[in-house]
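== Fold encoding ==
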Amino acid sequence: RTAKFATTAIMIRPRPQTMPSDESEQAADHGMAAAPDASRVGEILLALGRLREPQIMAVLERQVHDPRRFGELACILGYVSQGDIDLALTRQRSPGLSEVLIDFPRATPAAQFDPEELGSEALVAVRSQLVHRWFGEEPEQRALAVVSTDSGDGRSYVCSRLARLFADLDEDTLLIDADLRRPSLHRIFGADNAVGLSSYLRGEVSQAPVRAVPGVPFLHLLTAGPPVEQPHRLIARNEFGNLLEQLAPQFRAIFIDTPAASLGSDAVTIALRASGALLVVRKHSAPSGRTAR
């Protein structure tokens, strides 16, 4: 099952399921938004070592006269960062991820996405098609590999933009950098790449280091990790498929960035593990034999 994307065109096998839940649609119709439990956020931050009990009490006392939310006041008082709040809210929404999600160590400033940038409307259209025709309630309908024939086709850009757009629907979204040859997603989001997917697949860490992206609610990132020899063998291991099975119930959409197909068989293996692929083709470029296949 392969979808092809070229500016505005996409071909996908129809799916009857839709991504947003009935509860979220009803809440949106009534202008409601789920308010976080302030005490729960404080407990999570305390467990993470981000807050101390006297600081929690100070924030709660401030709330007596200030109607703003717990996390906002804790940031104003200088006790925590916005990244701390995002991590706590993510763990509050998805308790099953508490053993997986870690802090988001910064390496460089994150790239800023311009909502008016070229291709945005086309990607919103792609998102709509994926919501209604691809992603469903079953775990095997949660993951989608984003593939292309050659380097420079815009695969990583499309993958990261789509993940960001799905997170805008207030649905927990995971972005995985499975390009162990030339990873790039950590640079796009300004994340440290010292530990990532390769670390987990090699058994160097017991849990996949999935991170809540600061400032982007509902978006999570699993970077590629340090470079490895013969990455295609690492991706072909059962551990990668098992990881997707473990993460699928926790997210409504999982986007997987892959190496260019011209570099090896990694992309095909990843697409098979994900049970589906979105094919990115650069506009006005001559289709190669590999693209046709």
About this structure: The first strand starts at residue 2 and ends at 5. The two ends are 13 Å apart (CA to CA). The CA atoms of residues 133 and 147 lie 18 Å apart. Residues 120-133 form the longest helix (14 residues).
